[in-house]
Specification:
Distance between the termini: 40 Å
Strand content: over 45%
Radius of gyration: 13 Å
Order of helices and strands: EEEEEEEEEEE
Largest sheet: 7 strands, mixed
């Protein structure tokens, strides 16, 4: 069992920045990849970014490339998402997710943190 708790969401003006964090607890000794997803009102959940267990490889959705940076502190079991140059269309609930290294499906999800970008 893995528990994920996000924090760092809030209200920010367009062009501003926010940093999300996600702390993992429980069965954290396995090698695991991490990802960020988001869901805007009336839309399906979408992939934002992911990072491998080693932190060496990252992936981003085209919509956030060059603006968002995913990182992790393996020792602290903490995942981050630095969001710069925020746009109103980035408004969503952001979720962190866990999957065992080498697998395809994310098996644990956080409760989400709201990010609202005003114009």
């Amino acid at each position: 069992q893995v528990e994920l708790v996000e924090s760092g969401g809030g209200l920010v003006q367009a062009g501003g920045s926010l940093r999300l964090s996600c702390v993992a607890s429980g069965r954290t000794f396995d090698l695991y990849d991490m990802g960020w997803f988001r869901q805007a009102p009336g839309k399906e959940r979408e992939f934002v970014a992911s990072i491998t267990w080693s932190g060496r490889t990252t992936y981003y959705a085209d919509s956030v490339k060059g603006r968002f940076t995913i990182s992790r502190d393996v020792a602290k079991h903490t995942l981050y998402l630095q969001m710069n140059s925020l746009k109103t269309e980035d408004t969503a609930v952001y979720y962190c997710a866990h999957r065992l290294a080498g697998t395809r499906e994310y098996d644990y999800w956080g409760q989400g943190t709201q990010v609202t970008v005003s114009s």
